[in-house]
Amino acid sequence: MLYAIPSPPLEWNAITLGPLTIHVYALWLLAGIAAAAYLTQRRLTRRGAPSDVVLDIVLWAVPLGIVGARIYHVLTHTQDYFYAGADLWDVVRIWDGGNAIFGSLIGGAVGAWIACRRAGIRFWSFADALAPAMLVAQAIGRGGNWWNHELFGNPTTLPWGLEIDPAAAMYPVGTAAGTLFHPLFLYEALWNLVGAGLLLALDRRFHLRWGRLFGLYMVWYGVGRAWLELLRIDPTSDTYLGLPANSAVSIVVALLGIALFVLRGRQHPEREESVFVPGREPAAAGGDPDGGATTTASGRTSEDGRKDAGTGDAPDDRESAAPAESSSES
Asked: Lower Cβ count inside 10 Å, N or C end of the chain?
């Protein structure tokens, strides 16, 4: 088809190096994690955090995120794992595929919370720095779905229809070869990239802290997944209230995001002055000699790395901003 989106050959989904097999899907996920870590580190250090704190958090968040992703997938595809004669060890065979972003968010949040407590960083400060980076990471990770011939929607005659190999595991039974499908992986990637840009713009304009930016991330991602899942071909997914599991959970996530934005805004109408837990701030204060953010005369680290002169915002007496160690935001 002249205008169809091709998918990579199925034999390209893994690289074999002697006894070692590297799945290309995993490489896409690793690329997304690396991008998120880099962008989050830049954003967080500009607010005064140490230059290596995000790596420490990632070492906790990623493993628990993988565990959470697997648990969520199994619980929302019970007919794939629990039936007469089933091998229950399939539940833990994560290398055979089957992970879910919502489960990874839950597991990753637990890991990040633990790591933030150990590092003395406010959890919600980290979450706000992470929010746009998460959308970028999720957009990159969807490339793995394209590579694996999965995450596609109903048949379509649109010029950007996606080619899927009839031998692919997710190819619908009884569908004619050559049928084109909605490229849901691409729809979601574009949705996420637009959302990342929107969150960055809103953050610069309104200084959204105390978890409010992460709340907006939940709303944006939840709304996007809710309608995209309605187009998805996933015959083994469980349903709740007549909706695919991921659509139902997406709606809940969006509603929780709205609640988080409103409640945290009411609890903390003041400007966030420090990313550190009270009492865990570094002893030293001052500007970054390498050109990072500076600490203002009022004790606040300026948001764009310049001296904040006479803004009139009174700092919280309990906190002072720490020196930043990075340059301008991506």
From this structure: N
